[in-house]
C-alpha cells in the first residue's frame, strides 16, 4: 500500500509537470531570488518504513512485530531564500496512523495516533533563474504524538522526539508567481513504545518516506 501511494503521488507530479511545462513554455514567470518567500500547498503521502519487534519487560522476544499504516494528507511548506540558491523551508502537516501487532497468526490493531511531524530543512536550489529548478535539502524533524486511542485491551505509550531528514525535489515555474512542486523526503526517527504499563516494549524505527506534489506561490 505504501509503495502504491508513493508511486501514485510521484506519477501525478510527473504528469502535471509535463503538461503544465508545455502550456507555460511561452509565458513569463517569476524566478527564484534572494529574499523571496514561497508558500506551497501539497498533497502528501506519509509511508512509514517501520521496523520494531515487541519484547517482554525482561527482553524476551514475543514473536510479534510492530506494523504502522500509511496516510495521505494536505500539507503546507514555507520557504525563504537567504541567497538565490540557499533557502530554509518549514513543512507542516499532521497524519493519522494505525498501529498493529503482527506475527504468526496474530494481526491485531493495538493503537492509533495522530502525529505532528514538522520538518525544518536547509536547501540548495540549482538553476534558480530557470523554469525548472531542482533542489536538495537536509534538516531536522520532530515527532509529536497526540489524540491517541488504544484497542483490544492494549495500552500503548509512544515517546515524542527528534529525527533528521533528507530531501530532494523540483520546482517548475508556471505563469507569473505560480509554480508546480514535486518533493520527496526520507525521515529517520525512532520511538520507544511502552505497552500495558511496560509489560511489553518495542523500539520502533518509523523512518517514513514522505512524497508530495503541490502548487506554490512566490511572493
TrEMBL record:
Record-level GO BP terms: transmembrane transport
Matches recorded under InterPro entries: OMP/PagP_B-barrel, OMPW
UniProt keyword Signal, yes or no: yes
CC annotations in GO: outer membrane
Signal sequence interval, chain numbering: 1-26
Gene3D superfamilies recorded: 2.40.160.20
Keyword annotations from UniProtKB, A to Z: Signal
Similarity remark: Belongs to the OmpW/AlkL family.
Name this polypeptide is given: OmpW family protein
Amino acid at each position: 500500500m505504501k509503495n502504491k501511494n508513493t508511486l501514485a503521488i510521484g506519477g501525478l507530479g510527473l504528469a502535471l509537470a509535463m503538461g503544465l511545462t508545455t502550456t507555460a513554455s511561452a509565458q513569463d514567470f517569476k524566478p527564484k531570488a534572494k529574499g523571496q518567500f514561497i508558500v506551497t500547498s501539497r498533497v502528501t503521502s506519509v509511508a512509514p518504513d517501520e521496523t520494531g519487534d515487541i519484547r517482554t519487560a525482561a527482553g524476551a522476544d514475543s514473536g510479534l512485530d510492530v506494523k504502522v499504516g500509511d496516510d495521505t494528507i494536505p500539507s503546507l511548506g514555507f520557504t525563504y531564500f537567504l541567497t538565490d540558491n540557499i533557502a530554509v523551508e518549514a513543512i507542516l502537516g499532521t497524519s493519522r496512523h494505525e498501529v498493529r501487532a503482527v506475527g504468526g497468526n496474530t494481526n491485531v490493531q493495538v493503537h492509533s495516533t495522530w502525529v505532528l511531524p514538522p520538518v525544518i530543512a536547509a536547501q540548495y536550489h540549482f538553476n534558480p533563474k530557470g523554469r525548472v529548478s531542482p533542489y536538495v535539502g537536509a534538516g531536522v524533524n520532530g515527532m509529536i504524538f497526540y489524540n491517541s486511542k488504544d484497542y483490544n485491551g492494549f495500552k500503548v505509550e509512544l515517546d515524542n522526539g527528534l529525527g533528521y531528514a533528507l530531501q530532494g525535489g523540483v520546482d517548475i515555474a508556471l505563469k507569473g508567481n505560480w509554480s508546480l512542486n514535486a518533493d520527496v523526503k526520507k525521515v529517520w526517527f525512532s520511538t520507544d513504545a511502552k505497552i500495558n504499563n511496560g509489560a511489553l516494549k518495542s523500539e520502533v524505527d518509523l523512518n517514513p518516506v514522505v512524497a508530495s506534489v503541490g502548487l506554490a506561490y512566490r511572493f
